[in-house]
Amino acid sequence: MELWEYLKGNITMTAANDEQCRNLLISLRKINQAIDQHSFVLKKNFGLTGPQLITLQAVAYYSPISVTQVSKVVSLSQASVTDITQRLEKKGYLSRARSSNDKRKTDIVLTKKGTQILDAVPPLLQERFTKRFSELERWEQLMIESAFERVVSMMSAQDFNAAPIMLTGDEK
Question: Which helix (H) or strand (E) holds 110?
């Protein structure tokens, strides 16, 4: 028995429906593989995980910024962002400084080395995607958005909290 036949189990499908479902699942898998591959290249070539890169970008854009503010911007827990910023600080990409507004608080700032790594890394997948998506006609954008929202619903994934960032897992 072919794996696809086993996986679809007792679901009754027409031949056309079967082929469309199979093609959609293949497309979803390809999206996952593209995200995995991008994350692998980022880690291998630059020593950064996706969440580390997103955190660096947030700090570069909003600097100076607190861990709490970073966690809100990147949609990661404060504990994750604390861990990520500590790792980035050890690599010399970030530094901490007392807030100029409130001496009880600590802000995070990008170092020269952090700026250099940001200049060297390739754009994130969502940057390429956003550029190509924005070039589509409005009706086509709405059609794609609607289709993806429907897929999310069909996968019972609508309750997941997610940022508009294409990353794998909970890498730190």
Answer: strand 106-110
